[in-house]
Design brief:
The protein contains 23 helices and 35 strands. With 774 residues, the chain is of the alpha+beta class.
Length: 774
């Protein structure tokens, strides 16, 4: 081997993490050029490899700048370097990508359009108004990739040959689109089209005929108008789409990872139409605002929330409604949101434009806030295929807007909120997936099947976990099919073969059954994991904790070791095991899952369990809309223990209190009762109910306040404060007996920000370290 000179040095560098699809190779190329270094950089399926040679101090500076100045969306999880022999290079080049068997590296999530590309839509002749503009710093990534390494031929851009102008940019090291795989323009890229199904909202238009599923379609609204949608500023068709939305129409619009249903967020009739289309009665809708200033007009957002909103990930961020925003109840006046957007909740799921198309639309639109919700029938996954979108939404909406590039990996919008513990991801999808999460152990070959509700799955690769996008509730046929398809896609994309398969302890979960079949088929070892231990372990792994912790896992449902339903768990645990140190009282759930949909059943069971003397009066005052025969049937189930499994889930206590106060008798969606209860809490009060060893005693206190005609907001606040105190006191006792000073809070109930922040503050006063899922 040639001896390395003291003045001319060569270094081999291996970079792993999210370094493909984020402009990392062009960044390395330009950095090497600025420092007059020679060598090469190459994308491989196991990471990015760099060979660099030149003067010692310049190479040292190069290595430092790789970490400090890498592109915003890049994440370097590992960077190893070692001396190598110099080559005979006269310049620095980007080598052709290489596929390495079994090798794998991070794939970039989809990235919101950057300011430079927005400027290009105004200043570049071949990109004027181009609605799919992108560069190495922004644009679709995960949604269009089919294989590694990340190159154009392994994306859905493979069908679009670059024009001369785009090709020149692609090969120009000084250009921002140097090796940008989805590069395109008006001359060569995908195009949008719009079909209008005789919309009464669009005004006069040419009577063009189209076909739906091979047949001419007409109805009382008229004939379909099938158009090529030219989105250049001032064009007729973008104005037509704006006219539809401004006049109360509904559009289905193709986004990055699937379709969205869109309407004026201030028009109650339009919002109600979307609810009818989706079959979704009360669950809140996300709202896309034109810019951050408009968010401030409608919502209360601090600097951290605004920073998250405007980040390159562009998630939906849950914000408190502003007092000045009001609630619309008729036609839009441009200054209020329709009551139908969030109903009785005091929050709004806000999102800012993240596609060039969104910016073009708001540039012409007279509205500043649009309902922006996943285009799906309630329970089904987001629609991503053009044929399915046309069959499902063309006749039901006033405009169907598509572009002719395939979405390979459907991915919904991510949902986040800020808490005292940092960012809390409620739905992890676009902008985050499939970013790898580094874990403090070797996870290679482990497949984790996930739960049945709000499912995601994960695959282990080395010391990383690759989490899927949000899939949904597996009890729905289409969602389960999406689950299976996503697993196949991940297995192929990340070259994953299972050795161990982990699933929930509950044998009847769809995910557990699938995992058992998968284990039989692959010869893998099946491991059943207790639900709440998994919650705690997930947070431990995320924060790389490798010692015993006090785990508090609060949710609604999870099979326990005793055959009952757990969900208020105080544990001392590590990765390999746990000791249950406490929980709330068990209560019967008459009708099982039906009780979760009808919180009044849980409330009635609680009253019967404590022998409350005025139960009949409460029934008369609160359950007057429930048929008498139904109530009597539930009474018999409670008395006889018929189909009434026992649960200590903390979420069920929230359901009970919401029903006892009349806030939510019947739930339209999962978590509605607790969310409504949280939304009326008053943070100014410190009054709290006493949670004794028998936590059902809190029901007596609630009913005493109901009898005194205390307002629901007082009851909700006292209940939340009492639960926070109970967590603090129980953790303090465990801390005193064990000496463990690290506490992990996990589970769906801790998505309640009022409760979470109060618990965090109480524990931190005792100098206990608190960890939550971020």
């Amino acid at each position: 081997m040639t001896e390395v000179s003291t003045t001319i040095k060569a270094l081999g560098i291996v970079v792993d993490g999210m370094v493909q699809g984020v402009g990392f190779r062009p960044f390395v190329y330009r950095l090497a050029g600025e420092l007059s270094l020679k060598g090469w950089v190459v994308n491989r399926s196991d990471g990015v490899l760099i060979h660099v040679e030149g003067e010692c101090h310049l190479i040292e500076r190069f290595v430092g700048l790789l970490k400090d100045k890498s592109p915003p969306a890049a994440t370097i999880s590992r960077m190893d370097s070692h001396p190598v022999s110099p080559g005979s290079y006269d310049r620095f080049i980007i080598k052709e990508s290489q596929a390495i068997p079994e090798g794998i590296t991070g794939i970039s999530p989809d990235i919101a359009v950057c300011p430079e590309c927005l400027e290009d839509m105004k200043s570049q002749a071949h990109r004027t108004g181009y609605p799919l503009v992108n560069c190495t710093s922004c644009g679709p990534r995960f949604s269009l990739i089919s294989g590694l390494p990340y190159d154009r031929e392994r994306t859905s851009m493979n069908n679009f040959a670059m024009c001369a102008a785009c090709e020149q940019e692609y090969h120009d090291p000084g250009n921002r689109r140097f090796h940008a795989q989805p590069v395109a323009c008006n001359n060569c890229g995908p195009v949008y089209s719009m079909e209008v199904y005789g919309s009464e909202y669009a005004g006069p238009f040419p009577a063009l005929c189209s076909r739906v599923n091979g047949h001419k379609k007409t109805d009382k609204r008229g004939i379909i108008d099938s158009l090529q949608l030219d989105l250049r500023p001032g064009s007729f068709n973008i104005e037509k789409l704006c006219s539809i939305l401004e006049n109360g129409g509904v559009a289905a619009i193709k986004g990055t990872g699937g379709y969205h249903l869109v309407c004026d967020a201030g028009n109650s009739d339009a919002v109600e139409r979307i609810r009818e289309i989706k079959g979704r009665d009360r669950k809140p809708f996300a709202v896309m605002f034109s810019d951050a200033d408009k968010v401030r007009e409608f919502c209360m957002a601090d600097d951290k929330e605004l920073e998250l909103l405007q980040s390159w990930r562009r998630p939906v961020v849950l914000l408190r409604q502003g007092y000045g925003s009001g609630r619309g109840n008729g036609e839009s006046n441009g200054g209020v949101l329709s009551y139908g957007v969030s109903g009785r909740l005091d929050s709004v799921g806000a999102v800012l434009p993240y596609m060039p198309f969104h910016h073009l639309l708001f540039g012409k639109l007279k509205l500043s806030a649009l309902v922006f919700t996943s285009a799906n029938i309630s329970g089904d996954p987001i629609v991503a295929g053009d044929i399915e979108a046309r069959a499902t939404f063309l006749v039901k909406t006033d405009a169907l807007v598509q572009y002719n590039r395939e979405i390979i990996n459907p991915v919904d919008d991510s949902v986040c909120r800020m808490t005292g513990g940092g960012i809390q991801i409620i739905r992890r999808a676009r902008g985050y997936v499939p970013e790898m999460i580094r874990v403090p152990f070797n996870s290679d070959g482990i497949f984790a099947a996930g739960s049945d509700l709000k499912n995601t799955f994960a695959a282990g690769k080395g010391n990383h976990a690759v989490m899927s996008q949000h899939i949904g509730d597996l009890e729905h046929y289409r969602t389960f099919n999406r689950y299976r398809a996503a697993i196949e896609s991940f297995s192929s994309l990340f070259r994953f073969e299972p050795v161990y398969i982990a699933c929930d302890l509950h044998p009847d979960y769809y995910s557990s059954r699938f995992a058992a079949r998968m284990a039989d088929k692959t010869g893998s070892t099946l491991i059943r994991v207790q639900h709440h231990h998994a919650h705690i372990a997930s947070c431990m792994a995320e924060h790389r904790l490798d010692e015993p912790v006090i785990g508090v896992s609060f949710d609604g449902t999870g099979l326990g070791d005793d055959g009952n339903i757990w969900g208020s768990e105080f544990m001392v645990c590590d990765y390999s095991g746990y000791e249950r140190r406490g929980h709330f009282s068990y209560i019967p759930l008459p009708g099982g899952d039906a009780a979760i949909r009808d919180p009044w059943r849980i409330a009635l069971a609680c009253l019967r369990s404590i022998g409350y003397s005025d139960t009949e009066k409460w029934i008369g005052n609160t359950l007057y809309d429930i048929p008498k025969e139904k109530i009597e049937t539930v009474e018999r189930m409670i008395a006889g223990g018929i189909n009434s499994p026992l649960s200590c889930g903390a979420g069920r206590l929230f359901d009970a209190v919401a029903a006892l106060t009349g806030i939510c008798i019947e739930a339209d969606y999962d978590g509605e009762a607790p969310m409504l209860l949280e939304s009326i809490c008053c943070s100014e009060t410190s009054d709290a109910y006493e949670f004794s060893a028998d936590t059902l005693s809190v029901i007596d206190q609630v009913m005493a306040d109901v009898k005194r005609r205390r307002g629901p907001e007082i009851i909700a606040s006292r209940f939340h404060n009492g639960m926070a105190n109970a967590v603090h006191e129980t953790v303090s006792r465990i801390h005193s007996s064990t000496g463990i000073d690290k506490v992990v809070l996990s589970g769906g109930v801790f998505q309640n920000i009022y409760l979470l922040n109060r618990v965090i503050n109480l524990l931190r006063r005792d100098r206990i370290s608190v960890y939550t899922n971020n």
